[in-house]
Design brief:
With 196 residues, the protein is mostly helical. Helix content is 74%, strand content 0%. 18% of the residues are buried.
Length: 196
Amino acid sequence: AGCLIGLVCGVLNTIPYTQNDHPAKRFFLKLLRVVIRIYVEVFRGTPMVVQLLIGYWVLLPALGVTVNSGISVAVIVFGLNSGAYVSEIMRSGIQSVDAGQMEAGRAVGLTYATTMLRIVVPQAIKNILPAIANECGIDFDLDMVNEISEKTPNLCHLAPAGPTYMEDLNEAGGVYAVLSQLAEAGLIDTEVMTCT
């Protein structure tokens, strides 16, 4: 599921637009890129454990969903997390193909979609195949996921009374996301952040 999400997001994130395009198309594509960028930044910028806990303790109760096991939550969160990484892999792979390939396809009369599917994406897949195989080939140990999901409810007695643990999880994810953005921008040294 994550590979499919990433493939779709990666392709949608690279659809070009020019000033000559209809304003509605430009607005839609800009909005789509912002939504994809937020999705990628949230799932790549927060720890997976925080994502799992927020999914289980915050999103499910907010949606009114009751589950007996955390495995379904883990599958969804792992899929969305993997999708964010695959999206960036696909985007970089498509951008690695020379722009002249797209221009050549368009010059011989192919539509944008046909050029992408028949010319650009096959070359991009050749470039990103090792990274995609690494990301999509991860075999999650479901026994480990089941063990985590069974132990997590027992941690609730450590949280203060009331729903403040949701705020704590959101704060932890937010702090981690800010630190990772600062490290990515080169504003802080990542070696300082490591625990020894």
